[in-house]
Structure formats: structure tokens, C-alpha cells
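Researcher: I'd like a candidate sequence for this fold, 352 residues long. If you have to choose between options at a position, lean toward the conservative one.
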């Protein structure tokens, strides 16, 4: 058996060992902890860069994060002040067994008065047909979006109007298919979609002929720009992103200033019921916000080839940590508060 095949079959056995070593090494003090629950087979070390950041920059905060797999037994509930499920959304509609295990853990937390950050039930609000309704109710512009299938395609085309595109309703990323006219109705590759939805095409092309996708991160009272992707295609993704000097400079400029839509996005996060999430949005020809989706389990990568983005990602880590501390009802340490300067959104102080 090759090493790769062995790791796929038995690699999960190493996760409890790694968690045990990290917990012994980093969480032995008597401060009350955050119960961080992850699932085997769902990249349990997805936020390893975040934990490494805390260990290096905020070690007193890192000591609160105790790692557990959702199958692990919790022996001492009194030591916890917060539960954090780190799992891919949505769960209920995707893996009912995992959903039941997480729901059982959260119910035990509720009985003991332990708050939960991004409860598993609310992760279903990331489903696009649900999220767009809630985001719209918060006052943000969104595209028209409806569930669709072969039998309802013509009705959706009439309802939404051309052009529109088809994408997955219950996952981030995935295939897309643009329909410009009735001639495209017979060409939809339905076998590529599991839970398709039809989405209004809103033209967000800038005067330079390029498209821009902005990402904003929000947790608790705080939020900040995370990155800007620029590309020649209406579907802006990392694979088609332009990285010439002028594009990088525009990205840096976006990351270094307060987001002009921060207040609206903070309100949208609250409407979704998330404690922590990232938003992908564009700006239309009238300079108005168009929110495409919300992601309560966003990628926050430290890529060697994107060092110019590292400060914004680390600021995102600081916001993430601040959100968890706030959710637990704990004070933010001074060093963390210093990191939450610059373009970070904060609610206005009320005069007393």
C-alpha cells in the first residue's frame, strides 16, 4: 500500500494524537477554555494558520483553544466558556450523522450555559436561496435566486430574465453555467449539479472591462477588508485572477482602507445569525453593493506567493479571535486591541 493510500485510509488516526499533544503543550493553564469541535474527514486542521498566528502573536489567547473531534468524549464541561464548531457548512442538509453529533454537543453546552459560536443549525443559513433572502431583509442588494431543475427551468427563465446563471445552492464554489438566451436552455449540463439554483446575472464590469470580487470578514463587533480579486471573466476566481502590478496595488489599496459597505455587511451577518463569516460582493455600475454569498467557514490562507496579503489575513485572524472572545463574554487583551486598528470596522461609541 502506498503512503498516500495509507494516509487516506488510516490518516485520521493521527488527529487525536496531534490534538492531545497540542492541548497538553498549549492549554495546561487554569483559564477556562474554548471547546473547538471538528470532524474527521473534513480537514480538521483547516484553521492551522489561525492557531499558529495565535501561538506566535497572542499566546495568552491560544491557550484557550482546546481541540476535540466531535466523536471525542468531553469529561469536564465546567472548564469551557465557549463552543466553536469548525465544520464545513451547511451540515444538516449534507451530513445528517455529523449534524446529530454536533447538535448533541451544542445541547449539552446550552444546558450548562456555554454559548456556541456559529451553531450548527444556523449554518444552514449559508444556503444561497436562504442567505440571499436574509441578506436582502438586512437592506443589502442581492441577485434574484431560485431553486431550479429541468422541469422548472423555463419558468425560472421567465421569472428571473436573461441572462442568468446556474450554480450550486448548498456549497461554495462548484460549477456554473451562464444562459444568455432561450437557445441555451437545452444545453444545461444538469449532471454537473446536485442542488442547482438559478441566479440573476448582474453586470458588475468596470469601465476598464474587468470584474472585481471583494471579500470582507466579520466577527462580533469587528470587520475589515480581506482581499480583492480582479479578473477578465464575470466569474472572478483565484485561477483567473490578474496579478499585474496595477492589480496588486488596487488590492493593497482596498485592504488598507475601511470598507465603505462595512455597516451594511455587519448588519447582514447579524441577520444571518452568524457570529463569524466572510462576504463576497461586487459593486455595480451605480457604485452600489451587490452581495453574492456569505461563508461562515471561510478560507484564510497564508500563501507564500501572496505576501502582500499577509497583513490583511493576520488582521482577519485578529478579528476572528476578537469575535470568539466577545461571544464568550471575555475582555479583549490590549495586544489584540492594538491589532484591531486601521481599517477595522468598530461600532460607534455611545456617549454616556
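Model: Candidate sequence:
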Amino acid at each position: 500500500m502506498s503512503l498516500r493510500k495509507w494516509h487516506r485510509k488510516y490518516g485520521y488516526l493521527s488527529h487525536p494524537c496531534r490534538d492531545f499533544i497540542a492541548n497538553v503543550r498549549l492549554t495546561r493553564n487554569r483559564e477556562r477554555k474554548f471547546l473547538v469541535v471538528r470532524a474527521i474527514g473534513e480537514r480538521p486542521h483547516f484553521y492551522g494558520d489561525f492557531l499558529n498566528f495565535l501561538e506566535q502573536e497572542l499566546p495568552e489567547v491560544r491557550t484557550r483553544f482546546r481541540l476535540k473531534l466531535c466523536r471525542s468524549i468531553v469529561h469536564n464541561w465546567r472548564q469551557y466558556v465557549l463552543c466553536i464548531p469548525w465544520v464545513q457548512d451547511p451540515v444538516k442538509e449534507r451530513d445528517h450523522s455529523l449534524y446529530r453529533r454536533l447538535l448533541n454537543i451544542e445541547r449539552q453546552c446550552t444546558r450548562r450555559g456555554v454559548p456556541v459560536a456559529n451553531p450548527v443549525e444556523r449554518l444552514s443559513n449559508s444556503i444561497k436561496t436562504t442567505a440571499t433572502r436574509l441578506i436582502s431583509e438586512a437592506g443589502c442588494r442581492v441577485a434574484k435566486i431560485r431553486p431550479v431543475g429541468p422541469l422548472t427551468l423555463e419558468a425560472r427563465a421567465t421569472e428571473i430574465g436573461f441572462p442568468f446563471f446556474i450554480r450550486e445552492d448548498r456549497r461554495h464554489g462548484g460549477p456554473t453555467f451562464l444562459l444568455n438566451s432561450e437557445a441555451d436552455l437545452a444545453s444545461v449540463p444538469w449532471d454537473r449539479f446536485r442542488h442547482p439554483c438559478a441566479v440573476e446575472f448582474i453586470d458588475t464590469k468596470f469601465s476598464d472591462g474587468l470584474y472585481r470580487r471583494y471579500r470582507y470578514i466579520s466577527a462580533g463587533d469587528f470587520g475589515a477588508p480581506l482581499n480583492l480579486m480582479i479578473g477578465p471573466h464575470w466569474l472572478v476566481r483565484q485561477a483567473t485572477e490578474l496579478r499585474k502590478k496595477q492589480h496588486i496595488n488596487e488590492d493593497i489599496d482596498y485592504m488598507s482602507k475601511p470598507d465603505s459597505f462595512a455597516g451594511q455587511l455587519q448588519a447582514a451577518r447579524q441577520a444571518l445569525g452568524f457570529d463569524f463569516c466572510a462576504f463576497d460582493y461586487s459593486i455595480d455600475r451605480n457604485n452600489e453593493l451587490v452581495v453574492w454569498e456569505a461563508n461562515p467557514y471561510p478560507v484564510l490562507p497564508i500563501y507564500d506567493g501572496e505576501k502582500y496579503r499577509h497583513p490583511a489575513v493576520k488582521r482577519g485572524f485578529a478579528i476572528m479571535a476578537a469575535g470568539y472572545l466577545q461571544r464568550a463574554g471575555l475582555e479583549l487583551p490590549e495586544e489584540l486591541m492594538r491589532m484591531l486598528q486601521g481599517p477595522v470596522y468598530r461600532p460607534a461609541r455611545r456617549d454616556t
